[in-house]
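Before going further, learn to read the protein records used in this course. The integers have meaning only within a learned vocabulary of local backbone shapes. To see the layout at work, look at the sequence and tokens printed below.
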Amino acid sequence: MVILLAIPGIALAVLKGFPLTIETHEIVHLALFLGLCFIFQKHIGVHLLDEAQKQKHLYTRIHGEWYDLNAFKHPGGPIALSLAKDRDATVLFESHHLLSALNVHQILSKYKVPKEISRHLTTLDPKDDGGHYDWAGFQNDDFVKDIKLLLHSYFSPIAKRNNCSLYQASKATPERWSLICILAMAFIGTLPFYQRGHYWTLFTTPILAWILVANYVHDSLHFSLANDWRTNAALPYCLPLLCSPWIWYHQHIIGHHSYTNVGRKDPDLAHAPQLKREHESVKWRKMHKHQGNFARFVLVWSLGSWGMNLLNDLKTHLKLSYNNVVGFRELSKRRMCFHIIGRAVYLYIMYLWPLLRLPLLKAVVFIVVPNVVFSCLFMGASQINHNLEDCSGSDKNFLKHQVITAQNFGTCSTFWFIISGGLNLQIEHHLFPFVNHCHLPFLAPGVKELCRKHGVEYKVSAGYRDAFAKHLEHTNELSKAPIAPSLPQSPHHGRQQTNTFE
């Protein structure tokens, strides 16, 4: 981002004395403004958040034992550590320490809470029991050991060459930062025309916005973009289009990545249960009968971004739970003020400015079309990776579970890699959420070979059309009313039966 900030200054120096259009001036000013926003967020803003503040206690439960990590200076920063507060963080702990060269369990033992205190501690959500996976023997499992060996063999030469740790080697490369800067300038370059109501920006601007969000915001929120935690925390607030970062941590990191496709644990299975049924844990309604229709698809996918940003956000704060699955702590008054300001910025960016600057009919067009385009791109890149018949299995081994509940698509396509922000390599992303997605194409062949060696099903669709066809087949299958319990069961092989989402 330092490069991004420097570009406008260099442009001004080079172009000084030459006639510049109004749009060029605005592009430079916008780039400078966003760069200053990032600097403010990194050095001041993120330090004001509750999750970055030092707390009296930071209790968390890992493998059945309670620890107080308040005094622990986590390399990933205080925000990453705060996600474990008052939760069973076993999955978060294990999934983010596959590369560690230290004995993390031994380090953890220094912060163990005495029994007389721990017996009175409870998780934020009573249902957060750390269940589903069997961790006994996890570290000695041959598949787990081979996966760790693969990571070490890939990142060790990079770490040695750059004189850094293995975890530092797993973040974005200079080439990745260069691409992000190019994407950012391309997006910023459309904004003056977008604000003036040029019709060609109705599609160009939201498409570039999505590509930029997919290629840097997603990795930032996984703590996999930069080595400096402040950079990872600050950058998502510079383009708050996907949803509130704090809400995203709960929905995506704590919920979805920990319990992918597990009923009553993965919040992604019930984003809009009244409109669409994506899993057997969602109660079937008559409304689901036609969920495979094109019109229903367009409706649900068009509302995806709006639902994430506003509806789910509001419900989470009122119910103190994301989709009735992930416990949510009530925000302090100061933190809530910051949150409201962030949502107000989103509302202005996506809905209000056209009403202030454009004729009414044109304003409606500039509200609806960009939101629908951005939302459909988000849904199109995220929904086809897990919501499939082939991904309905489960495994008690955490890493094996991540493989069998995901699929890749278009793995040889640079186009899909950039458009999806690396989500086309979903299996590797779920195995290694702490690794920047620029490394995933190099790890994928090794992962595929290890899955073949250990008999773990590794699913790949040839391209997007194939992946979407499988998602549509799955959607149509779940549109059917369930067979009564007294009759033979529906052949949804591998699915675990769970209580239903209402």
